[in-house]
Amino acid sequence: MTKSVRAAIPPNLRLRWGGRFASEEDVAWHSHAEIELVLITAGACDISVGTHRLKGTAGAIFVLPAIQAQYQHTHGLTHTTFIGFDAPPGWFDDRPRVLMLGAYDPVQVWMEQLCDWPILRPAPAPDLARQLLELLLRRVRELDRAEGAPRHPAVSRVMDWVEANPAQTATLDDLARIAGVSASHLGALFAADTGGGPLQYLQRRRMERAAWLLDNPYLRVHEVAAACGFEDVNYFVRLFRRHHGQPPGRWRRVKPTTRS
Fold it and tell me: How far is CA 97 from CA 36, 75, 150, in A?
């Protein structure tokens, strides 16, 4: 099958702290410089932040923005696990919300691991924490999609255009005009939705289309490249190898069921 393509982890994505709460008491008004995730592992609580009052029971995870004051209303003995982190502006949607996790959702394990990370000795490499945090935040995006979180119209317009024009080249400014927003705003919207930029999305969709077309033995490699918007076949081959781990010629010789 086709390998997934992942954008580079932003260098300023940072885990700052973690902790656990076990009490029947409320948590008074306070705020953090970091974005916070709070997972209820037992009991129930509400969290007021801005004009929102979010309600959750065991298995709920709260997304709480930086700076804004919050108050936790605790309903009986309640246990939570929480972490604070920094993320690049626009890379992660930090609007206040609560999402429900299913049984065995990996978010529960990742939250516990990240909570303990700052006190582990010997200290693990910082990059490992960033990788785990990125996995967690990508999973939160998936939960948003599953709960029907609306996609920004500008992002939808670009995605629809990419699907309808697989062979047409485009610059960031071209995509911004299609979206009807500035290039910088479009970049922030895509980062929050997909974890990468609009050009990364365009390139990924081209590579996925190329892999699909290569399963047709009657198409030559240069024809596949042209169908995916690449005039330079050599550049297409290098890019395909980078994305899929092997050149187009070898890709089409390998049975789809044996690919990894």
Answer: 11, 19, 13
Give the domain CATH number at 205.
1.10.10.60
Burial class (CB in 10 A: 0-12, 13-18, 19+), 224: buried
Tell me, yes or no, whether 136 and 206 share the same domain. no
pTM (global) more than 0.70: no
Residue 2 pLDDT exceeds 60: no
What is d(CA 194, CA 203) in angstroms, rounded to the nearest whole number? 13
Same domain, 38 and 127: yes
Do the beta carbons of residue 229 and residue 168 sit within 8 Å? yes
How crowded is residue 17: how many other Cβ atoms within 10 Å of its Cβ?
15
**Which is more confidently placed, 193 or 71?**
71
CATH number of the domain residue 110 falls in: 2.60.120.280
Residues 18 and 111 in one domain: yes
* Average pLDDT estimate for 126-155: 82
Show Cβ contacts of residue 230 under 8 Å, excluding neighbours closer than 6 positions. 206, 236, 239
Q: Look at residue 71 in the predicted model and tell me its pLDDT.
A: 95
Give the integer Cα–Cα distance in Å for 75 and 139: 28
Task: Give which of 83, 43, 77, 76 is closest to 62, Cα–Cα.
Answer: 83
Rounded Cα distance between 29 and 15, Å, is 23
160 and 251 in a single domain? The answer is yes
- Whether the ω angle into residue 122 lies within 30 degrees of 0, i.e. cis, is yes
Question: Which residue segment(s) compose the domain that 242 sits in?
Answer: 153-258
